[in-house]
Amino acid sequence: MILYQGPSMIDGAPIVVIAPKGRSTNGKTGALLQTYIIRADMSPSDAIKRAADAAICGACRHRGIVINGRNKGRTCYVNVGQGPRAVFDAFTRGIYPVAIDAAAIAAHGAGRKVRLGTYGDPAAVPAWVWLALISLANGHTGYTHQWREPLAKELRGIVMASADSVDDAKAAHAAGWSTFRVRMPNESGQRMKGEAQCPAAKEVGAKVQCADCMACDGSQRSRAIDAHGGFAVMANVRRIAAVAIN
User: Fold this and answer.
1) What share of the chain is helix, strand, coil (3-state, %, to 5)?
2) Mean pLDDT for each 10-residue chunk of the chain (246 residues)?
3) Separation CA 137–CA 108 (nearest Å)
């Protein structure tokens, strides 16, 4: 179902939010209702090549930078050639029904456990969309890199602040957010005071799936996880970590 189609709250560009009804096969998250925040006017891969993904991801450091039409240094763990691309292709074919109001959005999430922003930042979307989606749900997870921005204030207590460093986490805590911190390779396994290890992480044996835990709903204890992703992503992560150390 199309939950929202309109301007991005970040930069006003056209975006669309789609929640496929089918069961997720993601081994880490488990059977959560996934939500994809994508550009409505170009494929996810084209958006990355043009830096147009700012509409859905803001200034997230994991986007990489565009040089001569190619994205360099991307550390986002999402492979846009898989889920996001499949959802965009289905969207362009017009197969998704459109939610006519908040009640229809609520019905789509009723009785499900929901992931806010499988791809894209929830803050790019009007908060009322998410409030409707989780109103009848059995729990939700979500993360935002926009926690410093006024546009994300309505999401505090609903999603986790994404923190890319200890300083990030401390600043977010001071602003009243629970955090989800990604640790660089040189920080593997380290935890701050008051921070719990993500139990779905590979570094602790992936003891549970997100669908079993559901602690990342913005209202509970902060969490941490080691940086993760495909081969190219982790190569960029290690390169960044080496520069930081030196």
Assistant:
1) 35, 20, 45
2) 98 97 69 96 96 96 90 89 96 97 97 97 98 98 97 97 94 97 83 92 89 95 88 76 56
3) 9
Burial (CB count <10 Å: 0-12, 13-18, 19+), residue 121: buried
Which residue carries 């921005």 as its tokens?
149
131 Ramachandran zone, left/alpha/beta (phi>0; psi -120 to 50): alpha
DSSP 7: E
At position 243, the amino acid (one-letter code) is V
Report helix, strand or coil for 23.
coil
Could you give the residue ranges of the DSSP H alpha helices within the chain? 44-49, 54-57, 83-92, 102-109, 127-134, 166-174, 210-213, 231-245
* pLDDT given for residue 23 in this prediction: 62
Cα angle, residue 22 at apex, residues 18 and 26 outer, rounded to 5°: 90
Rounded Cα–Cα distance for residues 242 and 246 (Å): 6
Q: Give the DSSP letter string of 74-106.
A: ------TTTHHHHHHHHHHTT-S-B--SHHHHH
- Give the per-residue pLDDT at 246: 43
pLDDT of residue 190: 84
Output the DSSP codes for 176-209.
T--EEEEEPGGGTT---TTEEEPTTSGGGT--S-
- The pTM assigned to this predicted structure is 0.91
